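Study this pair:
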Amino acid sequence: MPSVSYAIAVLLVLAAIVSLVVGVVGFAIGLVFDLMGLVLEVLPFAVIALVAAFFLQGGRVTRGDNGSLTIRLPESWPKI
Protein backbone atom coordinates (compact mmCIF):
# COMPACT_ATOMS: atom_id res chain seq x y z
CA MET A 1 0.00 0.00 0.00
CA PRO A 2 2.10 2.91 -1.18
CA SER A 3 -0.53 5.54 -0.36
CA VAL A 4 -0.46 4.67 3.35
CA SER A 5 3.34 4.88 3.57
CA TYR A 6 3.25 8.15 1.62
CA ALA A 7 0.67 9.59 4.04
CA ILE A 8 2.78 8.52 7.02
CA ALA A 9 5.86 10.13 5.46
CA VAL A 10 3.95 13.37 4.88
CA LEU A 11 2.66 13.35 8.47
CA LEU A 12 6.17 12.75 9.79
CA VAL A 13 7.51 15.69 7.77
CA LEU A 14 4.66 17.92 8.96
CA ALA A 15 5.30 16.86 12.56
CA ALA A 16 9.01 17.66 12.18
CA ILE A 17 8.20 21.11 10.76
CA VAL A 18 5.71 21.88 13.55
CA SER A 19 8.21 20.68 16.14
CA LEU A 20 10.93 22.88 14.66
CA VAL A 21 8.65 25.94 14.58
CA VAL A 22 7.56 25.39 18.19
CA GLY A 23 11.18 24.97 19.25
CA VAL A 24 12.32 28.15 17.49
CA VAL A 25 9.43 30.19 18.92
CA GLY A 26 10.09 28.81 22.40
CA PHE A 27 13.78 29.64 22.08
CA ALA A 28 12.97 33.20 20.98
CA ILE A 29 10.58 33.71 23.91
CA GLY A 30 13.16 32.34 26.32
CA LEU A 31 15.82 34.64 24.89
CA VAL A 32 13.56 37.67 25.34
CA PHE A 33 12.87 36.77 28.97
CA ASP A 34 16.58 36.19 29.60
CA LEU A 35 17.40 39.63 28.21
CA MET A 36 14.66 41.18 30.34
CA GLY A 37 16.15 39.48 33.39
CA LEU A 38 19.60 40.81 32.52
CA VAL A 39 18.23 44.34 32.16
CA LEU A 40 16.46 44.09 35.51
CA GLU A 41 19.68 42.87 37.15
CA VAL A 42 21.77 45.74 35.73
CA LEU A 43 19.15 48.47 36.19
CA PRO A 44 19.89 49.26 39.88
CA PHE A 45 23.60 49.73 39.14
CA ALA A 46 22.82 52.00 36.18
CA VAL A 47 20.51 54.14 38.34
CA ILE A 48 23.14 54.39 41.09
CA ALA A 49 25.79 55.42 38.56
CA LEU A 50 23.49 58.04 37.03
CA VAL A 51 22.57 59.53 40.42
CA ALA A 52 26.23 59.59 41.49
CA ALA A 53 27.24 61.31 38.25
CA PHE A 54 24.42 63.83 38.71
CA PHE A 55 25.53 64.91 42.18
CA LEU A 56 29.29 64.65 41.55
CA GLN A 57 29.02 66.99 38.56
CA GLY A 58 27.14 69.64 40.48
CA GLY A 59 23.49 68.72 40.13
CA ARG A 60 21.18 69.84 42.93
CA VAL A 61 17.69 69.03 44.13
CA THR A 62 15.91 71.70 46.20
CA ARG A 63 12.53 71.74 47.87
CA GLY A 64 10.32 74.80 47.43
CA ASP A 65 8.09 76.45 50.03
CA ASN A 66 5.07 74.51 48.85
CA GLY A 67 6.91 71.17 48.91
CA SER A 68 7.66 70.97 45.19
CA LEU A 69 11.04 69.65 44.05
CA THR A 70 13.32 71.53 41.68
CA ILE A 71 16.04 69.61 39.88
CA ARG A 72 19.01 71.72 38.77
CA LEU A 73 21.06 69.88 36.16
CA PRO A 74 24.87 70.16 36.18
CA GLU A 75 26.22 72.86 33.85
CA SER A 76 28.24 70.29 31.93
CA TRP A 77 25.10 68.37 30.92
CA PRO A 78 23.49 69.35 27.63
CA LYS A 79 20.11 71.03 27.80
CA ILE A 80 17.38 69.28 25.85
Notes: The mean pLDDT is 90. Strands lie at 60-63, 69-72. The radius of gyration is 29 Å. Residues 2-56 form the longest helix (55 residues).
